[in-house]
Write a structure and sequence with these properties.
The protein folds into 3 domains: 16-200 and 242-293, Rossmann fold (3-Layer(aba) Sandwich); 325-476, Thiamin diphosphate (ThDP)-binding fold, Pyr/PP domains (Rossmann fold), CATH 3.40.50.970; 500-639, 3-Layer(aba) Sandwich (Rossmann fold). Helix content is 42%, strand content 14%. Helix 3 (27-45) crosses helix 5. The N and C termini lie far apart (67 Å). The chain has 642 residues and is an alpha/beta fold. The chain is globular and about 85 Å long.
Length: 642
């Protein structure tokens, strides 16, 4: 009779405490099982695969060495945190990642005590970790605080601001630089690993401190030369001079997949008596899964996929994505005008600008995760006569708001803002929702704001932005595929501040701003089946408003309903202000703005999120009938007819 195989170690580990109870020699097996579990889970749900595969060993080592959750681990960004979730009591739900009512794709405080800080945007971990370290000290609660930050996130200025502050405070903080893409240092080998273990250990530290004590008794003339000599000697072998200058004790680079070395070095860091430490771990994104290792993007973000082949499931659609329409339209404008240039903040493929780069490699600029710099950099180019298109997701443009105001708008510089991922983004949830640019840009004088109703309108708006030189101009468009409309060969230049009537009717006016137009038209069909014949209009512009169009709609209809893929203070608020300021709400008109509600809606599908917000066809019909005075019974009866 065959012997029953042993239960996998991962089945025995439901908490980090159980992991710490394992013999150290079993942790390698646990890491291998953890990697396989993550691959299988993400194949079912889709999500961020490559980054998590690269930190499997680091995740195991961190939970083996530190007393989590008392010790705090902050993952920057949460893309890396899937293995962490599996080891911290969430394995039974890992196949609900990014699904409605399931686990978040990022760390989330409300989800687990092992997630001390939520992260969706990058470069926040060191600042948050420093705050935690200071709080622990002030409250006399000794604990270790560890910030794990990717090399891409280290391109953002906020990370260096935090490091500079931490170094000046001599704070008790451990930063782990997960170097998985930028190749900050050459590949590590046995000598580097050995040196890292030495310089992180107590013998080297004690010798160094003793040498400092001797030097302190020498005349002051010798202090700086000796310090520089020691620093040069150590950085010659291990690098890290920049981090040392910021006040961090640098260890590395080390092999981030060598579990034995990681554990020893983390134990040494844990036992450091004082001061901030930076451990530079070199990892391989997609480690241990050949399709990810061989892919250009290391499977950063994936759809559901076949584990054996790595082939991803693609949604069936004949319509191009809005992102690809933007990219092809911008290429057309660049072919016609050599002054057109493109700027991205570490998202060339996400914004479609990788296609632009293939044709115009000298006219595209990837500035890294540095949205503030991206905007002011574009402003500088605009000041010298270029036509910069700054393509940034709505959620990330929030980070550069001061630069949009101060460096672009006040100086009336014609920077073109291509705002991708406008509105709900689905599985990425509230951290990535593009709900606020209607409001935050709408508060800035002199900016032109457009929203595309479909992919053809987006092409027109790219052409309009290219032709506009009187100041900043923006156009927004959502994640996902277009509506499959007929596409013009070239974009037409739209008249600034002018919308359009799509369908003429009476009684009810439905005024859409953005890609809710498809649902508005579907709602209009349902209302028409009830004997109502609504007018449908596409505003096109939030700033400047088409005041003539809005006034006409208000004066010739009993009900005016606006729709937008944005939150409070956006298009509906601007329309309401115009109506009130001009006495157009004093008569029979009943005005109802439909917008994203004033709450952070949790991740689900985009369609489900819009339905929850009353921004689908059913929600629009319900609002129209309620505004006309239908009670619940009458509305139910009416809807049963269509």
């Amino acid at each position: 009779m065959a012997e029953k195989p042993d239960t996998p170690l991962l089945d025995k580990v439901t908490t980090p405490a159980e992991l710490r109870a394992l013999p150290r020699e079993q942790l390698r097996q646990l890491a291998d099982e953890l990697r396989l579990e993550m691959i299988d889970a993400v194949s079912v749900t889709g999500g961020h695969l490559g980054a998590g595969l690269g930190v499997v060993e680091l995740t195991v080592a961190l939970h083996a060495v530190f007393q989590t959750p008392h010790d705090r681990i902050i993952w920057d960004v949460g893309h890396q945190a899937y293995p962490h979730k599996i080891l911290t009591g969430r394995r039974d739900r890992i196949r609900t990642l990014r699904q409605k009512d399931g686990l978040s794709g990022f760390t989330r405080r409300a989800e687990s005590e092992y997630d001390p800080f939520g992260a969706g945007h990058s470069s926040t971990s060191i600042s948050a970790g420093l705050g935690m370290a200071v709080a622990s000290e002030l409250q006399s609660t000794p604990r270790n605080v560890i910030a794990v930050i990717g090399d891409g996130s280290m391109s953002a200025g906020m990370a260096y601001e935090a490091m500079n502050n931490a170094g000046a405070m001599d704070a008790r903080l451990i930063v782990i630089l997960n170097d998985n893409d930028m190749s900050i240092a050459p590949p590590t080998g046995a000598l580097r690993s050995h040196l890292a273990r030495l310089v992180s250990g107590p013998a080297y530290r004690n010798t160094r401190e003793a040498a400092k004590a001797v030097v302190s008794k020498l005349p002051e003339f010798f202090h700086e030369p000796v310090r520089k000599t020691e620093e040069f000697a150590r950085s010659f072998f291990t690098g890290g001079t920049l981090f040392e200058e910021l006040g961090f004790y640098y260890i590395g680079p080390i092999d981030g997949h060598n579990l034995d070395d990681l554990i020893v070095i983390l134990e040494n860091a844990r036992d450091f008596p004082k001061g901030p430490i930076l451990i530079h771990a070199v990892t391989k994104k997609g480690k241990g899964y050949a399709p990810a290792e061989n892919a250009a993007d290391k499977y950063h973000g994936v759809n559901k996929f076949n584990v054996v082949t790595g082939a991803q499931t693609k949604a069936a659609s004949n319509a191009p994505s809005y992102t690809s329409v933007f990219a092809s339209s911008l290429i057309q404008e660049a072919e016609a005008d050599s002054r057109v240039v493109a700027v991205t903040a570490a998202m060339p493929s996400g914004t479609g600008l990788d296609k632009f780069a293939e044709l115009f490699p000298s006219r595209i600029f990837d500035v890294g995760i540095a949205e503030q710099h991206a905007v002011t950099f574009a402003a500088g180019m605009a000041s010298e006569g270029l036509k910069p298109f700054c393509a940034i997701y709505s959620t990330f443009l929030q980070r550069a708001y001061d630069q949009v105001v101060h460096d672009v708008a006040i100086q009336h510089l014609p920077v073109r803002f291509a705002i991708d991922r406008a509105g709900y983004v689905g599985a990425d949830g509230p951290t990535h929702a593009g709900n606020y640019d209607n409001a935050y840009l709408g508060a800035i004088p002199g900016i032109v704001q457009m929203a595309a109703a479909d992919e053809a309108e987006l092409r027109h708006m790219v052409a309009t932005a290219a032709a506009y030189d009187n100041g900043p101009i923006s156009f927004r468009y959502p994640r996902g595929d277009g509506m499959g409309v007929d596409m013009p060969a070239r974009g037409e230049i739209l008249q600034i501040g002018k919308g359009r009537i799509v369908r003429q009717g009476a009684t009810i006016a439905l005024l859409s701003y953005g890609t809710r137009l498809g649902e508005v038209l579907a709602a209009a069909d349902k209302l028409a089946a009830l004997g109502l014949n609504p007018t449908v209009a596409d505003a096109r512009f939030l700033k400047p408003l088409d005041e003539e169009l809005i006034a006409k709609l208000a004066q010739t209809h009993d009900v005016l309903i606006t729709t937008e893929e944005g939150g409070q203070g956006g298009f509906g608020a601007h329309v309401a202000t115009f109506l009130a300021s001009n006495g157009l709400l004093d008569g029979k008109l009943r005005f109802r703005p439909l917008m994203i509600p004033d709450e952070f809606l949790e991740h689900s599908t985009q369609a489900d999120m819009y339905a929850q917000s009353g921004l689908d066809r059913a929600g629009i019909v319900k609002t129209a009938l309620t505004t006309l005075g239908y009670d619940q019974a009458a509305m139910t009866a009416a809807l049963a007819q269509v």
